[in-house]
């Protein structure tokens, strides 16, 4: 597994396309409906999936690894939502915590973890 993290609009998808030879058809972009196509090579915006899980009382890390049959071959992209002001809203705080747990588990399972900032990649693992 490959994990790519970074702030919004920092070039994570462009980095993944160049580094792994991906095209748009290889990438599943999550929205907040909870659907994830684990058959794609790359899953983008996993933080949106986390939000759906929190809204439905599901632990994102558990759900992800129960349903991702070929997780070792996935490229996962996530916006870093851990920085900035802590939200007042209880659900948004729970989302940040749950997404953090998911990213910790993903980073442990990943061969490499890359942070992208201003279009520049930095290997963390």
Features:
125 residues; single chain; six-stranded mixed sheet; 38% helix; alpha/beta
Shape: globular
Name the structural class: alpha/beta
Distance from first to last alpha carbon: 12 Å
Question: What is the count of helical runs?
Answer: 4
Mean model confidence by pLDDT? 94
Sheet having the most strands: 6 strands, mixed
Q: What share of residues are in beta strands?
A: 15-25%
SSE succession: EHEEHHEHEE
Q: How many DSSP-defined strands? A: 6
Computed over alpha carbons, the radius of gyration is 14 Å
Low-confidence stretches: none
Can you list the strand order of the major beta sheet? 2-3-4-1-5-6
What is the secondary structure topology, with strand pairs?
Blueprint: E1 2-6, H1 12-20, E2 27-29, E3 42-44, H2 46-55, H3 60-67, E4 75-79, H4 90-109, E5 112-117, E6 120-123
Parallel strand pairs: 1-4, 1-5, 2-3, 3-4
Antiparallel strand pairs: 5-6
Architecture overview:
It is a single chain. The protein is α/β, with parallel strands linked by helices. It is built from 4 helices and 6 strands. A 6-stranded mixed sheet has the order 2-3-4-1-5-6, sandwiched between helices. A hairpin with a 2-residue loop joins strand 5 and strand 6 (120-123). Helix 3 packs across helix 4 (90-109). The radius of gyration is 14 Å and the shape is globular.
